[in-house]
């Protein structure tokens, strides 16, 4: 069973996919069922995976970790995503880059936004509470 925006991984070949619409039959790759990657909560995790948010004009700057998450070849943040009011904004990163992305978002119209990110070594991380509420950073969560 899968749901919209679930991230799934094949244990054999390592392919990672995202579900857009659930067909209800389950996903298979390399002859076996794919695994849904668990979303780890930032609040339960290490500080190096916690996104630091700043508003920048009409945008949102997301930096992973404080100090910033390492970005070596074997261990780096592969992508950062903002999910805002049913829209998904994702930026892929490469080893050697800063784990920082500025998303151009219609900040003043956003009701709720969540952030999630993928670490090559430590998996999928997400916010269990909205990090943006009514266009402002939610510092209560
Ligand atoms: Fe990591």
Principal-axes geometry comes out as globular
Written as H for each helix and E for each strand, in order along the chain, the element string is EEEEEEEEEEEEEEE
Q: Helix/strand/pairing class, anyone?
A: mainly beta
The appropriate CATH architecture of the largest domain is: Sandwich
| Count of separate DSSP helical elements | 0
Describe it:
The protein is mainly β and 141 residues long. The chain has 2 domains: 7-36, no CATH class; 39-137, SOR catalytic domain (Immunoglobulin-like, Sandwich), CATH 2.60.40. The chain has no helices and 15 strands. The protein has strands at 7-9, 16-18, 28-29, 32-33, 35-36, 39-41, 51-56, 59-64, 77-84, 87-92, 100-104, 112-119, 123-126, 132-133, 136-137. The strands form 4 sheets. Strands 6, 9, 10, 12, 13, 14 and 15 form a 7-stranded mixed beta sheet that branches. Strands 2-1-5 form a 3-stranded antiparallel beta sheet, with no helix packed on it. Strands 7-8-11 form a 3-stranded antiparallel beta sheet, with no helix packed on it. β12 (112-119) and β13 (123-126) form a beta hairpin. It is globular. The mean pLDDT is 91. It binds fe (ii) ion. Fe (ii) ion binds at residues 49, 69, 75, 119, 121-122.
Which terms would index this structure?
141 residues, mainly beta, Immunoglobulin-like, 2 domains, 7-stranded mixed sheet, globular, binds fe (ii) ion
Task: Give a short overview.
The chain has no helices and 15 strands.
List the SSEs and their pairings.
Blueprint: E1 7-9, E2 16-18, E3 28-29, E4 32-33, E5 35-36, E6 39-41, E7 51-56, E8 59-64, E9 77-84, E10 87-92, E11 100-104, E12 112-119, E13 123-126, E14 132-133, E15 136-137
Parallel strand pairs: 6-13
Antiparallel strand pairs: 1-2, 1-5, 3-4, 7-8, 8-11, 9-10, 9-12, 12-13, 12-14, 14-15
Bound molecules: fe (ii) ion (FE2).
The site of fe (ii) ion has 6 residues, from loops.
């Amino acid at each position: 069973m899968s749901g919209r925006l679930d991230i799934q991984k094949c244990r054999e070949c390592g392919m990672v996919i995202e579900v857009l619409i659930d067909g209800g039959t389950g996903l298979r790759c390399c002859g076996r069922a794919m695994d849904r990657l668990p979303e780890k909560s930032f609040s339960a995790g290490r500080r190096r995976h916690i996104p630091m948010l700043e508003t920048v004009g009409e945008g949102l700057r997301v930096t992973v970790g404080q100090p910033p998450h390492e970005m070596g070849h074997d261990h780096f943040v592969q992508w950062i995503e903002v999910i805002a009011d049913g829209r998904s904004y994702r930026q892929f990163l490469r080893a050697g880059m800063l784990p920082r992305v500025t998303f151009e978002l219609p900040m003043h119209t956003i009701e709720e936004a969540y952030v999630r990110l993928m670490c090559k070594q430590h998996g999928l991380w997400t916010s269990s509470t909205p990090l943006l509420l009514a266009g402002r950073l939610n510092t209560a969560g």
